[in-house]
Design brief:
heterodimer, A: mainly alpha, 2 domains, B: two-stranded antiparallel ribbon, 19 helices
């Protein structure tokens, strides 16, 4: 019972870490370290909260820790273990500090803003092309010709050319891309492309072409209609 | 202080003196200042050259930032406290329990002592604004002159009412005098409300201006006042002020509890801390809804501003916000739970499992809420994920998920409270079993529906989700609260108390938890204050008047966060000082000859 109150939390934390780090990636892409850290930290917080709810549970949780660290009446293996912890822990912290501050050849982590605010002149626009089947079809045709190599024939961002780009071409069937945006936003992005991203869109290395030279405005509006229709999404509106 | 010596032309010195008369004095100064703004308009030749003034090294923007934030925090406290002080007084009057009256008076003491400082900072802010931004202030003064006058009158009324309310407390205890006193408390709140919404119109006008070319001065001022984000901000701030006031009073009680010497003191401040935390939580529950409405109005008003906030460079602030609110929810629940295990002897074993369940749900919700849409990832990691969106966890990053977990966390917190309320009592009513299963059913169904709507929200157009699903989620949660609260009250009326609550037995960490909660709320307000004001980006008045000063850029988030922390720190110091001064006399009295405190 004594060690139990410490053992369970330790198992829980290690278990969650292993799950996030190794088990989850079997089914999907690996998680970035920042996210794993967040979830493990949350777990640890929960453990401390639960352990300190009452006087007894606090004692049961922290008692062994303080007794171990204070070294009272310890002998043999326990004494060695305490010494080891007292030596290794600062070293660990030092190593962690070193490795997070030392210069490396890795480029710094970036937090690219995926949907920066559009410039003012695009804000109020609405699609002037009537939403008829012909126009949607025409839009899909243009899409197949110009956009599908990157954004994919299924509107899923997996066109044949997509693998070469970082950031990858947007996946329009994902509910967190065009479904959250207004049509005028797409008009801006298609017309101005990656080079036209606003200041917060750093580091502006998007491969999204700037279509204003090749396509007329009217064609862009048609593509937008075709794109939403093909991806089974609806633009954000306010009515 | 800042402007002696080399800049004689800049701003008149403000450090005139202190004391409670200061408030009135400043109102008059403000009255005198308002027409000056008008004059500046009439004489363009004089002011045309100076659009901005600055103080080197520190920078005008930083000064205004600090002063405005401190003023706002103080004002939030000063306008929030009267609401529950008054309610507390009513409770004391209705139930005849003296301790509520005493508590209400204690709240009002904190209020009265910070009132003058609030006005002081308002005055300083006004001087700074006039000095630093003459062109902008002339423009605003031109539009809002009528409401400046209204504001000054309101301030006089509020001050007079507060003095009567506070100084008349003991004199107006009995019979019809008490009724009059309660009426004064009501008036105090009415004036306070208007004192809040009038300046809100100036601030919201800057974000969502309505400028009409024709019409009288009054018509222009009115149109500008009733701008699209005015009411959303009014409601949001009103609730947030209650939260701020509650948690700060809680922190005050927490500190007094930690330093209490006698058993009565411990009992009293333990109880006051509980009330403060309760008020804070009570306000916290509807706050996310109000915030959501505000964001929606902003987005609808202007796509650019909406995206800057929600998807653009300010969106990182909302991740920080999630963390702070998360800590707040955890802290408040922790305090409730500790209350159960410590104040109700022998209850620990019984409540361990429900508490564990609630904690796990809260943490799961928090995990979802804190997961950003685009993740912080190294190049290597991003390549493996195929972008900064994680294919699986990326779905946690959008509003549908956030709204869902926010609603669930509110439900859990509400249940924490209900559990606390029922702890140590045994229902005797014959229908107790039925009632309890109804409550359980309502809760379970509500949670399931909230989750279903949240998941479904991914598959419907944005407008359906925003207008129907999110609203439905909110209504469901409200419905749960509105059914379970009266049911529980009814149940407990006939319940018999098995274990009496024992006050004054909380461990020190409960006191620290109260302080932590208050700090979180203050940090939150500084954070969201920054979001609100920098969402205008390089505009003083969005789309109308550009910021052409050297500060027309948004500071990096790290820099902004440092200033937020500084403001939080300064505010805490200020409040601690005020409370310390305010309670000095009482302590001396209570202490008698024993020790210096």
């Amino acid at each position: 019972m004594k060690g139990g109150s410490l053992l369970k939390p330790a198992i829980l934390i290690v278990g969650i870490y292993l799950f996030l780090k190794f088990a989850l990636p079997l089914f999907t892409a690996p998680l970035p370290a920042s996210l794993i850290f967040l979830y493990v930290a949350l777990t640890a917080t929960g453990i401390v909260i639960f352990a300190t709810l009452s006087g007894q549970s606090t004692e049961a949780f922290f008692g062994p820790i303080t007794r171990f660290l204070s070294g009272e009446g310890q002998a043999g293996a326990m004494k060695m273990a305490r010494l080891l912890v007292l030596v290794l822990f600062p070293l660990l912290v030092g190593w962690q500090t070193y490795s997070s501050t030392a210069p490396s050849e890795q480029p710094p982590a970036e937090n690219r803003t995926i949907h920066p605010a559009p410039p003012g002149e695009f804000v109020g626009l609405s699609n002037p092309i009537p939403n008829t089947p012909e126009n949607v079809m025409a839009g899909k045709g243009l899409y197949a010709a110009f956009c599908s190599p990157c954004h994919g024939g299924n509107f899923d961002g997996k066109g044949p050319a997509s693998r070469g780009f970082n950031p990858p071409p947007a996946n329009f069937s994902d509910p967190t891309t065009i479904a959250m945006l207004q049509e005028s936003y797409l008009f801006w992005r298609i017309k101005k492309g990656g080079v036209g991203l606003s200041i917060e869109g750093m580091p502006w290395k998007s491969a999204m072409p700037r279509w204003e030279v090749e396509l007329k405005d009217e064609q862009i509006w048609k593509i937008i209609m075709g794109e939403y229709d093909g991806a089974h999404q609806k633009p954000r509106t306010w009515e | 202080m800042l402007n002696h010596g080399e800049h004689p032309r800049r701003i008149a010195s403000t450090g005139r003196g202190q004391g409670s008369l200061l408030a009135g004095l400043l109102v008059f100064l403000a009255l005198a200042g308002a027409p000056l703004l008008g004059l500046a308009q009439d004489a363009p030749g004089q002011t045309a050259g100076v659009a901005y003034r600055d103080i080197p090294a520190v920078g005008s923007r930083n000064i205004v930032w600090v002063i405005a934030q401190l003023h706002l925090l103080l004002a939030g406290f000063v306008l929030g406290v009267p609401i529950f002080a008054w309610i507390c007084e009513i409770v004391g009057w209705k139930t005849g329990e003296k301790r509520y009256d005493k508590l209400a008076k204690e709240f009002t003491k904190l209020l009265t002592s910070s009132y003058a400082t609030t006005a002081l900072f308002g005055g300083i802010l006004l001087f700074m604004l006039i000095g630093f931004y003459p062109k902008l202030m002339a423009y605003l003064g031109d539009i809002f002159f009528p409401s400046f006058v209204v504001y000054c009158i309101l301030f006089l009324l509020e001050t007079a009412t507060l003095y009567l309310y506070w100084y008349g407390w003991d004199a107006m205890q009995e019979g019809s005098k008490k009724t009059l006193h309660l009426f004064l408390g009501f008036l105090l709140n009415v004036f306070a409300f208007f004192i809040m919404i009038v300046p809100n119109s100036w601030a919201t006008f800057q974000a969502s201006p309505v400028v009409i070319a024709e019409g009288s001065d009054l018509a222009r001022a009115w149109a500008a006042t009733w701008n699209p984000t005015w009411w959303p901000v009014n409601i949001h701030r009103l609730i947030a002020n209650v939260v701020l006031g509650g948690y700060i009073c809680g922190a005050y009680a927490g500190i007094r509890y930690l330093s209490a010497k006698t058993a009565e003191e411990r009992e009293h401040y333990d109880w006051m801390g509980y009330v403060g935390n309760f008020i804070g939580v009570f306000g916290l529950l509807p706050l996310p809804f109000a915030g959501y409405w505000l964001m929606r109005e902003i987005y609808q008003y202007n796509q650019q501003m909406g995206i800057t906030l929600m998807g653009g460079f300010l969106s990182w602030l909302f991740i920080l916000q999630a963390m702070l609110i998360g800590v707040l929810f955890l802290g408040s629940n922790y305090y409730f739970w500790m209350g159960i295990t410590h104040r109700i002897p022998g209850s620990e074993v019984k409540y361990r499992r429900p508490i564990m369940a609630m904690l796990v749900i809260l943490l799961l919700c928090l995990g979802v809420w804190m997961t950003p849409h685009s993740l912080v990832a190294s190049l290597e990691e991003a390549r493996k994920m195929g972008g900064t969106h994680h294919p699986l966890l990326g779905v946690f990053g959008v509003m549908s998920a956030k709204m869902t977990v926010a609603n669930l966390m509110i439900l859990v917190t509400f249940m924490s409270f209900i559990m606390y309320w029922r702890a140590g009592k045994e229902e005797t009513a014959g229908w107790a079993k039925v009632a309890k299963s109804i409550m359980g059913g309502v809760l379970g169904v509500a949670a399931i529906v909230v989750i279903v709507l949240g998941v479904w929200g991914y598959f419907v157009p944005a407008i359906v989700r925003i207008n129907y699903f999110s609203v439905a989620q909110v209504l469901i949660v409200l419905f749960v609260m509105l059914t379970i609260t009266p049911l529980t009250a009814l149940l407990l009326r006939s319940a018999k108390t098995t274990t009496e609550m024992v006050w004054g037995r909380m461990p020190p960490r409960a006191g620290y938890a109260l302080v932590l909660n208050a700090v979180m709320v203050i940090l939150l307000m500084t954070l969201m204050g920054y979001a609100r004001s920098s969402s205008r980006v390089h505009w003083h008045i969005y789309g109308v008047m550009r910021d052409s000063s050297q500060y027309a850029y948004s500071p990096a988030l790290g820099y902004a966060a440092a200033l937020m922390s500084l403001n939080t720190f300064l505010f805490c110091m200020l409040v601690a000082f005020i409370f310390w001064v305010a309670t000095m006399g009482e302590k001396a009295k209570a202490g008698g000859g024993g020790g210096k405190g």
